[in-house]
Each structure stands twice: as structure tokens, then as C-alpha cells.
Specification:
single chain; alpha/beta; 4-stranded antiparallel sheet; 39% helix; elongated
């Protein structure tokens, strides 16, 4: 005869020692626990225990009575459901199925947003196994002030999507229409073992485009803007536009560059993110189409490991209007990311890349986790993941970290 399997369902006010009291009764009767799970929301406990009882043992009924009495004394509700061997075997067979992590991030997460996201999950024949809140609890006094709040929940789902492209397209549409960020990641060993982060600099780590600041200080802002617009229209390529813009900076004093470097506007959340990444042992790099002069200032400020950017030629304390070495464009960024992964002896799946522009897309697509940060719609559409609702430290949620895990 096969053993009996019971699903023991417990709910009620959470109390210290509750789980111990229930499992002690099972232990005294040599009951085998096949699985268990517990969640607490607003001090209300939901506990499930899948337990295996000896086949046709008369003492089984006594165990159930003891559990009912203990629940009565603890003032909690307990219920029992018999699980058939067929149902249990089917449940066991689901092991090894594909798993995904869906991270929802916004100033405030609403029921409407959840309803839209879970509709996509259902239509793609995925099943939610676990929902976890990563962000801290929001006091009622702050709940209406979205500028000072953030909410993040993580859904662990199981199954094989019927159309993976429809999943990402559906989440992108929800993100645009309902004002939240949605990350959809394969839940594998690499997600929990990232080792290298590569940041773009301008409009990513800092809240400005340095070449615009330099041009403005030198009185050539309009001319630089014209060249930039021409490049965006596809009339000239990035390298040619870069050369033309740098040429307009000829004669600019290095003291102006130093003043800008000393006052770079750091992106919200960058300090907290980088401090936590360093504490966790990540290697951190800047790979930028901007300028090394400012990248080195950030390297000193944050204690970064690598800086790759374009080198401006300086003679007699002034810019010559020329650059040194190879121009770093989108393809070069991807190449440098790949070389850094080799140098650090890690796989590309262990690399995170963060950027905002079209020239960041090659490295965003190459990295295991590519994040378009406060990017233009075309970049967000092409990138696998994006963050637009909070600062850079929102990346910590995509790594599965909770607010309580972060000490900075």
C-alpha cells in the first residue's frame, strides 16, 4: 500500500514558535515532510506543509486530531487536503521545467498593472510559483508621494512560453502604457552569478553629455548640435560626427575641462549601486564614447576598475581639436566588453551592461543582462531590459537583492 499524502494548510495571525509547534507534532509521529512553504503579509501567516503519512496507520487520525487541537490553542485555522499519488507524481514531473524571473519596478505598483502582467503570464501558459516583495515597506504617510517611494516585486514563473517574443512585446506595451519597468530573465545559474558591470558614462553614470558642456563653454554649442542632429538623421556616421565635433573644441583650455570634471552631475542611485556592487566583489568598468579625462575623474571618485573612452589630445594646456587612438563607437564598446570578460575569466552571461544610447545596443545585446537606462523609446524597444522609473540603484532589484540586503 502506498503512503498517504496530506497537504496541511495553516493560516492566521503570525506568532513566534507557531511553525515549531506544528512540526514538533509531525516529528513525534515520524511524519515525513515532502515540501513546505511559508509567507507572511501584514502579520498574517500562510503556511503549507506537504506531509507523507504511513499507509493505513491508525495513528494518522490521532496526528490530525493533535494538529487540530494545537491550531485551536494557537487560534489559527488549519485544513487538510488528501493528495492522490497521481497528482503528486504529476507535480514532481514539473521539476526541471524552464523558470523565469519577472521583476516589476515602479514608484507604486497597482492592481491594474499586476492584472495586465499576469494576463500575459496566463496567455503564455506560464505558472506563478512565488511572489516576493524586494522593496521595503512604505509608510502610509509616504504612500501618496510617489517621488519618495519605490515598489518592486519579483515573480518566479515556471513553464515554456508559447511565444517568447510575444512575452517581451506584451511586457514592453504594458511598461509604456502603465508606467512601470518589467524585467523578464531566465532563472539560471548565471543570473545569480554576475561578476562584471560595464557602464556607459554620459547620460548614464552622469546626468549630462560632456561634449555638449564643452561645446557650450567654448561657444560652439550650436555647431556641435547641428553635427549631432545630422548624425542622428543618418547623413554621417558616428566616427565622422565625432571627428567634426572634437575639431570644434580646438583651443579650449584644460582648466575648463577640469572645472567640468570637478562638478559632474552624478546620476541618482549611482553611489548606492556602485558601493553595493563593490562590496559584493563585482568588477566595474566604464565603456564610453565620451572622454577619458572625465572617465578617470569618475574612476577616482568611485574606485572603478577600468575606464575605456576616447582620448582628447592636449598640448600646452589646450585641446588641439584631435583625438588619440581608436574611436570608441558601438562596435568597439561590444569588443571591449568581450575582452574584459576574457580578462576576468568569466562568461558573457555573467556580464551586466548599462547604457542609454543607440551606440550602447551592441554591448547591451552581448551582455548576459543588458539594461537600457532612461533611454529613448527605440533603445528601450531593442534592449532586453530597461529602467526608466527609478535611479541606477534599481539595478540591484534585477539582481534579486532586497532593500534590507543593501547596506548603503
Amino acid at each position: 500500500m502506498q503512503n498517504e499524502i496530506f497537504l496541511i494548510k495553516i493560516s492566521g495571525e503570525d506568532k513566534p514558535g507557531l511553525t515549531s509547534a506544528i512540526t514538533s507534532i509531525l516529528a513525534e509521529n515520524n511524519i515525513n515532510i515532502l515540501d513546505m512553504g511559508q509567507a507572511v503579509i501584514h502579520n498574517t501567516l500562510s503556511l503549507g506543509i506537504l506531509a507523507e503519512f504511513p499507509a493505513e496507520d491508525k495513528s494518522n487520525h490521532s496526528v490530525l486530531k493533535d494538529l487540530l487541537f494545537k491550531a485551536y490553542t494557537l487560534q489559527i485555522h488549519i485544513d487538510f487536503e488528501i493528495i492522490t499519488p497521481e497528482s503528486y507524481s504529476q507535480w514532481v514531473s514539473l521539476q526541471g521545467k524552464d523558470r523565469y524571473i519577472i521583476t516589476l519596478l515602479a514608484e507604486k505598483i497597482t492592481a491594474r498593472q499586476i492584472a495586465q502582467i499576469t494576463k500575459v503570464i496566463y496567455e503564455q501558459e506560464l505558472n506563478i510559483d512565488l511572489i516576493t516583495r524586494l522593496s521595503g515597506r512604505v509608510p502610509l504617510s509616504d504612500a501618496g508621494n510617489h517621488q519618495h517611494t519605490r515598489s518592486c516585486i519579483e515573480l518566479s514563473v515556471r513553464g515554456k512560453p508559447s511565444d517568447i517574443q510575444q512575452v517581451t512585446a506584451g511586457f514592453l506595451e504594458i511598461s509604456q502604457n502603465y508606467g512601470l519597468d518589467i524585467a523578464f530573465q531566465k532563472d539560471d545559474i548565471f543570473r545569480r552569478n554576475r561578476r562584471l558591470v560595464c557602464f556607459d558614462m554620459d547620460s548614464t553614470l552622469i546626468q549630462t553629455e560632456v561634449i555638449v558642456e564643452l561645446a557650450r563653454k567654448h561657444g560652439v554649442g550650436d555647431k556641435v548640435h547641428e553635427i549631432t542632429e545630422s548624425a542622428m538623421r543618418g547623413e554621417i556616421d558616428f566616427k565622422e560626427s565625432f571627428r567634426r565635433r572634437v575639431a570644434l573644441l580646438e583651443g579650449l583650455s584644460e582648466s575648463v575641462m577640469q572645472d567640468i570634471a570637478d562638478n559632474l552631475p552624478i546620476t541618482d542611485g549611482a553611489d548606492r549601486l556602485i558601493a553595493q556592487l563593490k562590496a559584493l566583489g563585482y568588477k566595474i568598468a566604464i565603456i564610453s564614447g565620451g572622454f577619458t579625462y572625465f572617465g578617470m575623474a569618475l574612476r577616482k571618485r568611485f574606485g572603478l576598475d577600468y575606464v575605456f573612452a576616447n582620448e582628447l589630445e592636449i598640448k600646452d594646456g589646450k585641446l588641439t581639436g584631435k583625438h588619440l587612438g581608436e574611436i570608441i563607437d558601438g562596435e568597439r564598446k561590444a569588443f571591449l566588453l568581450k575582452e574584459l570578460a576574457k580578462k576576468e575569466n568569466i562568461q558573457l552571461e555573467q556580464v551586466i551592461a548599462v547604457g542609454d544610447g543607440a551606440n550602447d545596443l551592441p554591448m547591451l545585446k552581448l551582455a548576459g543582462l543588458g539594461i537600457a537606462f532612461h533611454a529613448k523609446p527605440i533603445v528601450k524597444k531593442s534592449a532586453s531590459h530597461s529602467i526608466s522609473t527609478v535611479g541606477l540603484d534599481g539595478i540591484l532589484y534585477l539582481l534579486g537583492l532586497r532593500d534590507r540586503d543593501v547596506n548603503f
